[in-house]
Specification:
Layout (H helix, E strand, L loop, with lengths): L1 E4 L3 E7 L8 E5 L10 E2 L2 E5 L4 E9 L2 E10 L4 E4 L15 E5 L4 E8 L3 E9 L4 E5 L13 E5 L4 E9 L2 E10 L4 E4 L14 E5 L4 E5 L10 E5 L4 E5 L12 E5 L4 E5 L13 E5 L4 E5 L7
Antiparallel strand pairs: 1-2, 2-3, 4-6, 5-6, 6-7, 7-8, 9-10, 10-11, 11-12, 13-14, 14-15, 15-16, 17-18, 18-19, 19-20, 21-22, 22-23, 23-24
């Protein structure tokens, strides 16, 4: 699932199938009603209880945002569900957002607004209210351009790397949502190169975080697995890879046990792209997908 913003608000989905020729793009045009301002660098999750996408924050022409919107996938309608009272996260772009199924909430952390950020908040999807976590030290440095998944077994937000004006990181942290505590689980050796603007998805079959790409001195094309039981990194080494990119979007395709990658910026090697690639987690192979329909 991918959310795209240019001068107008578009919502485009890639319908996946194990058969290459059955894959196609479908542009979902919202029905009448309010829509979010066009923006980039927003965060989004899927709400499986109500079959909707939840959108948070981003950079709009009017400035950084901290609003919350829901897109109902049954009715194709947007709803502004920004709380009108109570505390809320500061406006920002490039935050991380994950879904906590036990408490039916969106958890966000980090990003950049008036400054780099390292705060953690929960948005209750039933009451549509924010609450801030206040963990003690130690905690990750302020940053943006990190990537995160939610570990549903340990109930941790797991995050890797990111960037500030002082440089890029290669650290791995877990945020325990029940005990409200950060834990630095960076292995002593064998870590991916420091980076930012990479992407991550949760491999539910093998209980791993799959991390792809990002930016260091240039776009990166490597793909790694973080074992959420052992807290250890392993580089996956397929023969041949897509050109390196940052700002790509990834999802885990549970039916076919693969990671789907869309778009991204290839830097001097091609700029912004709309390619779709699949990484088969069983065979450890890449395949470029060529879906039918009008491309985003």
């Amino acid at each position: 699932m991918w959310f795209y913003q240019s001068m107008t608000v578009l919502f485009t989905v890639l319908l996946l199938s194990a058969t290459t020729f059955a894959q196609r793009w479908q542009n979902i045009i919202p029905n009448s009603g309010d829509v979010p301002d066009p923006r980039s660098n927003a965060a989004a999750i899927y709400d499986p209880v109500n079959h909707r996408m939840i959108l948070f924050a981003g950079k709009a022409s009017s400035g950084d945002r901290n609003d919350v919107w829901a897109f109902d996938l049954n009715t194709s309608l947007w709803s502004d569900i920004t709380p009108t009272s109570g505390s809320a996260p500061a406006p920002r772009f490039t935050p991380n957002a994950v879904y906590d199924a036990v408490d039916h909430r969106m958890i966000i952390w980090s990003g950049q607004g008036a400054a780099f950020l390292n705060d953690v908040w929960a948005f209750d999807l039933a009451s549509e209210t924010w609450s801030e976590f206040t963990p003690p030290d130690p905690k990750p440095n302020i940053r943006y351009g990190t990537a995160a998944v939610f570990d549903p077994l340990a109930r941790d937000l797991v995050t890797f790397a990111g960037f500030t004006s002082q440089g890029r990181f290669d650290d791995t942290w877990r945020f325990d949502v029940e005990n409200v505590a950060w834990n630095n689980v960076t292995p002593a050796q064998g870590n991916p190169l420091e980076r930012c603007l990479h992407s991550a998805s949760y491999d539910s079959l093998n209980h791993r975080m799959i991390m792809y790409g990002g930016q260091n001195a240039g776009p990166l094309a490597d793909i790694w697995a973080f074992d959420l039981t052992q807290n250890s990194w392993t580089e996956l080494t397929p023969s041949g890879s897509p050109p390196g990119r940052y700002f790509a979007a990834t999802i885990y395709d549970a039916r076919n046990h693969r990671v789907i990658i869309f778009g991204g910026n290839r830097g001097n090697n091609g700029g912004v792209t709309k390619e779709v690639w699949a990484f088969d987690l069983t065979a450890s192979t890449w395949e470029q997908l060529l879906p039918a329909g009008n491309l985003p």
